[in-house]
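tokens incoming
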């Protein structure tokens, strides 16, 4: 295969050293080696329904297909299937974030009629079912419905009742509006709008029970629903689990700004200022998507795709890394806002005993995992009250992203979280601890052991 490499001064196969002798130019040889990897126009996401038509194409134009040498070498370590699944998952979550932004704006600016209540009294909105239906449809079209197994939070029963006809209509409208936007995210949409039965079918396909064998997706369509309906933080979480191990994680955080300095501003103020500032300024990027693949040692963050813009992979993605802080007195810790399923008093006492002096960062949803992965905080602790069972979709994506960003996540006994037992994290030792590093993590675990007997948990 003939390869044409531009010959520039100092970049040819030979160079002169300080003694004016001709010696091999290693930079040129490296470039020549890397250029031997063909940059193919990869078409992925085909289904039988769209025979010979890809659900999305990666980097159609030549300028979009240029990748760094590190990316080329990294790609050799993973199968094309891994690459395809990761990119598709990120694109699907990007589209889900856009859907949620529209619904949240509607709820906040108009009424709360779109809010319903589940059996556990937590609010669920049009966004929950719409995201679940949309992501289910995208995955099924890309890989074939027989090859896609999904564990998700929402079931179709309450939406199928006659009394929910108006809600179902709103969900169908929202789903079709989202799928009509597929080309903006590099995805292939349906040939015609989906009907009620097709939307219900997409939601009902998310009926997997998980387990220790096989591959399945874990989806939380809107994690932190209370934050969502209040215009605050929430997340869309999608993870791929294989034989009980999380192998891929994507976390969409529509209200979590790309830049750390914006965390100091109240979210409502940020919403107002964002509307008054040109969206081309990165400082005002409202939200982000984080993602990682098991074993890569890397976690990435990219901004949400602005309205009326197309997603160009990898969408200005940049690597994120956990904070280097290992001194508890300088660390910031996160904890859930909701007191119903977490003990604030115990975590407050624990924080004091280990030397944490900063105010806790209390945010809804898996945004806490994002905060640690990108270095905005150092510790996340959650100790549930008696009787509460943690679900896998509330943690899978965030756990992997923190781990690949250099952090540590275990239960309070120091054991990895077990995603092989079905829909719940069975066998959890007391609580969940996520830290920016092993040194900090060990200090927290020792403090838990020292304080646990005096707790009421």
């Amino acid at each position: 295969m003939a390869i044409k490499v531009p010959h520039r001064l100092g970049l040819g196969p030979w160079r002169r050293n300080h003694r004016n002798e001709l010696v091999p130019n290693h930079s040129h040889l490296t470039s020549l080696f890397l250029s031997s990897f063909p940059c193919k126009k990869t078409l992925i996401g085909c289904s039988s329904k769209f025979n010979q038509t890809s659900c999305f194409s990666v980097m159609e134009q030549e300028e979009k297909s240029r990748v760094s040498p590190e990316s080329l070498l990294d790609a050799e370590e993973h199968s094309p299937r891994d690459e395809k699944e990761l990119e598709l998952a990120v694109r699907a979550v990007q589209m889900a974030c856009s859907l949620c932004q529209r619904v949240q704006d509607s709820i906040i600016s108009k009424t709360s009629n779109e809010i319903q209540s589940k059996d556990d009294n937590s609010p669920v909105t049009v966004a929950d079912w719409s995201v679940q239906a949309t992501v289910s449809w995208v995955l099924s079209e890309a890989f074939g419905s027989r090859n896609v197994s999904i564990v998700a939070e929402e079931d179709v029963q309450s939406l199928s009742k006659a009394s929910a006809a108006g809600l179902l209509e709103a969900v169908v409208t929202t789903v079709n509006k989202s799928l009509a936007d597929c080309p903006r995210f590099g995805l292939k949409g349906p040939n015609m709008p989906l009907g009620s039965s097709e939307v219900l079918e997409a939601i009902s396909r998310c009926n997997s029970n998980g387990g220790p064998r096989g591959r399945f997706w874990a989806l939380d369509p809107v994690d932190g629903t209370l934050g969502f309906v209040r215009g605050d933080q929430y997340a869309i979480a999608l993870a791929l689990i294989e034989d009980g191990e999380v192998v891929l994680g994507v976390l969409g955080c529509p209200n979590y700004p790309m830049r750390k300095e914006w965390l100091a501003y109240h979210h409502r103020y940020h919403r107002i200022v964002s509307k008054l500032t040109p969206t081309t300024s990165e400082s005002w990027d409202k939200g982000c998507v984080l993602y990682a693949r098991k074993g890569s040692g890397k976690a990435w963050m990219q901004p949400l795709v602005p309205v009326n813009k197309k997603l160009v992979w990898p969408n200005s993605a940049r690597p994120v890394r956990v904070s280097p802080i290992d001194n508890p007195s300088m660390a910031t810790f996160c904890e859930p806002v909701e007191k119903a399923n977490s003990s604030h008093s115990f975590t407050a006492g624990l924080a004091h005993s280990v030397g944490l002096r900063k105010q806790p960062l209390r945010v809804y949803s898996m945004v806490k995992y994002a905060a640690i992965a990108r270095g905005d905080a150092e510790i996340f602790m959650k100790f549930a009250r008696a009787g509460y069972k943690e679900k896998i979709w509330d943690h899978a994506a965030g756990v992997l992203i923190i781990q690949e960003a250099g952090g540590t996540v275990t239960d309070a006994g120091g054991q990895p979280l077990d995603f092989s037992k079905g829909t719940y994290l069975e066998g959890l030792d007391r609580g969940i601890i996520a830290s920016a590093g092993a040194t900090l993590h060990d200090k927290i675990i020792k403090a838990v052991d020292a304080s646990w007997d005096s707790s009421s948990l």
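note: The longest helix spans residues 80-109.
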